[in-house]
Amino acid sequence: MDKASIIKRALELGFSRCGFARCEPLEEIRGFYSDFVTEKRFAGMQYMERYAPQRLDPDLVMPGAKTVISVAMNYFPPVLIPDEDNYIIAKYAYGRDYHHLMREGLDSLSGFIRTLNPAVRLRAFVDSGPILEKAWAQRCGIGWQGKNTLVINKSDGSFFFIGILLTDQEIEPDEPETEHCGDCDRCTRACPAGALDVPWQLDIPRCISYLTIESRAEVPEDLKNRLGDRIYGCDICQDVCPYNRFARAHDVTTFLPKEELLKMRRKDWISLTETEFVSLFDGTPVKRVGYNRFIQNIRANQTPS
Ligand code: SF4
Ligand code: SF4
Fold first, then answer.
1. Which tens digits make up the pLDDT trace of 99-111?
2. How many angstroms separate the CA atoms of 93 and 76, rounded?
3. Concatenated DSSP letters for 130-149?
4. To test the ligand 2 pocket, which listed residue (145, 149, 150, 152) has its Cβ within 8 A of the most ligand atoms?
5. Shortest CA distance to 177 belongs to which of 158, 190, 198?
6. Pick from 23-27, 39-43, 163-167: least confident
7. Residues with Cβ within 6 A of ligand 1?
8. Distance between Cα 299 and ligand 1 center (Å)
9. Catalytic residue of the set 107, 127, 203, 268
10. Parallel, antiparallel, or unpaired for β 151-152 and 144-145?
């Protein structure tokens, strides 16, 4: 199958990178992942212990899969929401939920691959199945998993989403990316919650991103004074990463923050009504946490330390 034409089409569709790997079990992380599950390091995200064999071997997800295709989509914003007199939202959540755009892009890429071979079998994943996207992004040469546990590309930084296609076609694999953190420890030192005290191993229950998005419980008292005005997600370990000085602004209109979101300031957040919440965040990832949970995050930042 013509790899160059697939890459060309992926870039035309708005993806910033496209890489390929042989669909073989992820032996290099089997031990790490088994410990992760056995020690229940997934905090409240129980889904991470389900389908463990499939996560380590995509042939169990799509029997007969020969190649994993990994794509990246840049989300580094051209405009940052001002942080002065404000609460802070993670950059990935400024605009429309990325799942839609990534899924549309992967469906279009699948359609193109079918024009090369109508009999091809394909399955697309965007945070949607038992696929370890970051490990595959590394295998596909897109980037390496840094000490902050995120995938970093030497030229692009780490502000990108990852999507996966499995196919039954043989396509020449790329070289897996190697690790380029070296002696750097900026992310581990900068993490306000101590969630990266062990490099490459996120302490999920301490991570502000987990605490303000995924966790169903309120932010624990002892971590409230670590939030640093963050009310949805946390980009600190990416902001300090030296490779992100290479991040280029995306050109995806739907990822842009609404004008009304750009104008929000601390006093507006404190008096936010449910109607205003829906108006600000309809169609964005933030909407999924719900108004009540979002207000809890704002209140957690108001707790005196
Ligand atoms: S997202 Fe924030 S809290 Fe989580 S590891 Fe990175 S710096 Fe620490
Ligand atoms: S800040 Fe340094 S150690 Fe952390 S992920 Fe980036 S390069 Fe690696």
1. 999 999 999 999 9
2. 11
3. S--HHHHHHHTTS-EE-TTS
4. 152
5. 158
6. 39-43
7. 148, 191, 193, 195-196, 202, 207-209, 234, 236-237
8. 20
9. 127
10. antiparallel
First to last CA, the chain: 59
- The rounded Å distance from CA 235 to ligand 1 centre is 7
- pLDDT tens sequence across 236-264: 999 999 999 999 999 999 999 999 999 99
The CA-based diameter of the chain, rounded to the nearest angstrom, is 62
**Which residue type sits at 13?**
L
pLDDT digits (tens, 9 = 90+) for 203-223: 999 999 999 999 989 999 999
Q: Report helix angle 98-116 to 3-12, nearest 10.
A: 150
Q: Where are the domains of the chain?
A: 3-78+92-167, 186-248+257-302
Residue 285's alpha-carbon distances to 63, 159, 269, in angstroms, are 32, 16, 17
Nearest CA, atom 2, ligand 2: 184
Model confidence, pTM: 0.95
Q: At 49, which amino acid appears?
A: E
Residue 231, token pair as written in the block: 């009310």
The DSSP secondary structure of 21-70, one letter per residue, reads EE----GGGHHHHHHHHHTTTTTT-GGGGTTHHHHH-GGGTSTT--EEEE
Active-site residue flag, 127: yes
Give residue 295's identity as a one-letter amino acid code: I
Rounded distance between C-alpha atoms, residue 106 and residue 109, angstroms: 5
User: Ligand 1: distance of its center to the CA of 149 in Å?
Assistant: 10
